[in-house]
Amino acid sequence: MEEIEVVSTVCLVFTLCMFSAGIPDCWKMWRTRSTQNVPFLPLLVTCINNLIWLYYGLWRQDSTLIIVNAVGALLQSVCMFTYMVASKQKSRPLSQIFVGVVLLTTLYLYLTIVITSHTVLVDRLGLAGAGITILMYTSPMIELVTVIRTKSTRSISRPLTVATFFASSLWFYYGYLLRDPYVQVPNLPGIISSIVRLFLFWKYPGEKLA
User: Fold this and answer.
1) How far apart (Å, rounded) are the C-alpha atoms in residues 138 and 192?
2) Could you tell me the CA-to-CA distances from 100 to 19, 77, 81, 124 in Å, in that order?
3) 39-58 core/surface letters (b: 16 or more CB in 10 A; e: else)
4) Where does the sequence pass through the membrane (predicted)?
5) Pick from 7, 5, 126: which is nearest to 59 by CA?
6) Pick from 29, 40, 41: which is nearest to 82 by CA?
7) Among residues 53, 76, 151, 206, which one has the fewest Cβ atoms lying within 10 Å of its Cβ?
8) How does DSSP assign the chain, residue by residue?
9) How far apart are the first and last CA of the chain?
10) Single pTM value for the model
11) What are the residue boundaries of the structural domains of the chain, listed by start?
12) Dihedrals phi, psi of 156, to nearest 5 degrees
């Protein structure tokens, strides 16, 4: 039990550090009243992911999942609000928010009306959270093609890469300790993508860090 508590605490710290990496961009948007070419969709998807894992944590009665994802959802909501204030074109992010709300509402109704078994409900929640987490970790791999082509790492952040590596590794181990594949497996792509990014930083060391 002590090992799980230690790992869960370290998971909490590293994940909150990873979430806080977006605060400077958020503050810059607020200060300049400009979105600075920051895409809105990743903020929304991360918030949805946090909400699903928060719901999963509540059903699993896992305080670590609850705290991490409650804070994550709050931070992403603040960033989305800041984006809406700073953005001159609000129709696109508003339509994306609408789609996100519809998806979350549909998932909630499905889980509360169609699913009657507690075990099945937790499994479906875990599957939904795992799917979105894997998508979040694998989608940025597309930008690595540009890094290799241009031999430049300007578009990726070393601090965020390091934080993602440790957070993913810790959550992978935490899932192993809990015997929870929905927590463990989705973090494997995060570990792999972080290792690939760290290799690119080593291969192209002359670039100024993002």
Assistant:
1) 9
2) 20, 13, 15, 18
3) ebeebbbbbbbbbbbbbbbe
4) 6-27, 39-59, 65-85, 97-121, 127-148, 160-177, 183-202
5) 126
6) 29
7) 206
8) -HHHHHHHHHHHHHHHHHHHTTHHHHHHHHHHTS-TT--SHHHHHHHHHHHHHHHHHHHHT-HHHHHHHHHHHHHHHHHHHHHHHH-S--HHHHHHHHHHHHHHHHHHHIIIII---HHHHHHHHHHHHHHHHHHHHHTTHHHHHHHHHHT--TTS-HHHHHHHHHHHHHHHHHHHHHT-HHHHGGGHHHHHHHHHHHHHHHHSTTSPP-
9) 39
10) 0.85
11) 1-203
12) -125, 150
Joined together, the tokens standing for residue 127 give 């599957």
What's the gap between Cα 35 and its chain centre? 20
State residue 74's pLDDT score: 94
Determine the length of the chain.
210
The pLDDT tens digits for 52-101 are 999 999 999 999 999 999 999 999 999 999 988 888 888 888 999 999 99
Identify residue 54 by its one-letter amino acid code: L
DSSP string, 171-210: HHHHHHHHT-HHHHGGGHHHHHHHHHHHHHHHHSTTSPP-
